[in-house]
Write a structure and sequence with these properties.
The protein is mainly alpha-helical. It contains four helices and no strands. It has a domain of 59 residues. The longest helix has 10 residues.
Length: 96
Amino acid sequence: MERFYPLKGNMSLDALLEPLPDRNAPKLCKVGSIIDSLQDPYKSALHNLLIVSYDDGGASDEAIADRMKTAGLPVGARTIYQHRKKRCACPEQVAA
């Protein structure tokens, strides 16, 4: 006897067809993930904001967090600080 399982609610069998995430892909922090997802000119603009430290005349972590929030990319200043200091999960080439 064949069993039939009816779809309920918002179930979608199409999810079974989607590829699984690559387990070997580099892990990124929230800031790194955002940078990775953007395209130029936004990617380079954000990278340029992050690369120059506050001590060297760059924007503060709080100012960058405010700018990102305005752009619809809410990230905490502490997360930005960790990324800028390379104390996050990002590989070297992604970290600012």
